[in-house]
Amino acid sequence: MALEMKVPSPGESITEVEIAEWLVNDGDYVEKDQTIAEVDSDKATLELPAEEAGIITLKAEEGDVVLVGGVVCLIDTDVERPADFESKVEEEEPEVVAEATPSPNPAPVVAKVDVKATPVAKEMIAANGINANKIAASGSNGKITKGDIEAYLTGGVDASASNGWGGTRAQEKKKMSMMRRNIAKRLVAVKNETAMLTTFNELDMKPIMDLRKKYKELFRESHGVNLGFMSFFTKAVTEALRLYPSVNGMIDGDYMITHDFADIGIAVSSPKGLLVPVVRNAEKMSLAEIESEIKRLAIKARDGKIDISDMEGGTFTITNGGVFGSMMSTPIINPPQSAILGMHNIIQRPVAIDGKVEIRPMMYLALSYDHRIIDGKESVGFLKTVKEMLENPSSIIFGGKDPEKVLLNL
Question: pTM of the predicted model, to two decimals?
Answer without folding.
Answer: 0.69
